[in-house]
Amino acid sequence: MAPPSPPLITTYQSESAMHRPLQLWRSMGHDLLASRELAWRLMVRDLSAQYRQSLLGVVWAFIPPVLTALGLIIAKNSGVVNIGTTDLPYPVYVVFSVALWQTFVEALTGPLAAVIQAKPLLARVNFPREALILAKLGEVFVNFGIKLILIIGLFLGFQVGVSGSVVLAAVALVHLILLGTALGMWLAPLGMLYEDVSRGLTLAIAPWLLITPVLYPVPTQGWFSWVVKLNPVTPLLVTTRELATHGVVSNPTGFWLASLFTLVMLLLAWLLYRLAMPFLIERISA
């Protein structure tokens, strides 16, 4: 009698989503649209908590640019630092620029903060992960709207004219915010696992500010001018500032190159975020 044949063992392997790229992008777009209502609820919850648990509330949106401007104005008038000539009254220049820089930083740190705060929720509930990013984007725009009140007040107080291209300044601002969001999404998956990412990002923001023309005009000579110009934040921030005031863009080529860089980085970051999140959630749930 022949010995019984060994039982057949069937191994199932999940197919990588990258094998069907069109289906993957279609699914990503569908989930992005489906996450709008949840993103709105998350944004309202976080904004309410942010300002409800503070004595000064929305005033905190004004304090950093005002204090920075006061310190630099005192240093500039006393001759401690040589800022150079700006195309706007310096108080307006520095407050407007710091507000734009803070908006970029909020967009940069938003995705990382979102996934870290949502760890318990991600481990228990299945929902479109894009909602976390959209909620933080909404917070960034609301916070800038609050800062805009201060900026408009300074424009009126110093009698700074606004050009007809101010509508285009909003487009440049969106590009600046999307750049921060894209870079933040690159860091978010790794930041879920290691706190070093969040700490390292905090340390990197200060020197990054120094190579961005926020507190000084764009330098035109020397090696430092090349460092500033190669910074992708520079053309987006400067173009936003220029379109909102005199309407003449000093570096259109740099703006469009930075915008193209932003688009590519955003799409790749979204793809990485989409593919990495299931594995990360499984790991933190174990």
Short description:
The chain has 11 helices and no strands.
Structural descriptors:
mainly alpha, about 290 residues, single chain
SSE inventory with pairings:
Blueprint: H1 21-34, H2 36-52, H3 63-77, H4 90-117, H5 119-124, H6 130-157, H7 166-193, H8 195-210, H9 223-230, H10 233-244, H11 252-285
Please give a structural write-up.
By secondary structure, the protein is mainly α. It has one domain. The chain has helices at 21-34, 36-52, 63-77, 90-117, 119-124, 130-157, 166-193, 195-210, 223-230, 233-244, 252-285. The longest helix has 34 residues, at 252-285.
Q: Oligomerization state of this entry?
A: single chain
Rounded mean pLDDT is: 85
Distance between the termini: 48 Å
Strands, total number: 0
Portion in beta strands: under 5%
Structural class assignment: mainly alpha
What's the alpha carbon Rg, rounded to whole Å? 23 Å
Query: How many helices in DSSP terms?
Result: 11
- How helix-rich are the residues, as a percent range? over 70%
Largest sheet: none
- Give the SSE order as H and E letters: HHHHHHHHHHH
Count of domains: 1
Could you say which overall geometry the principal axes of the C-alpha atoms support? globular
Outline the low-pLDDT stretches: 5-14
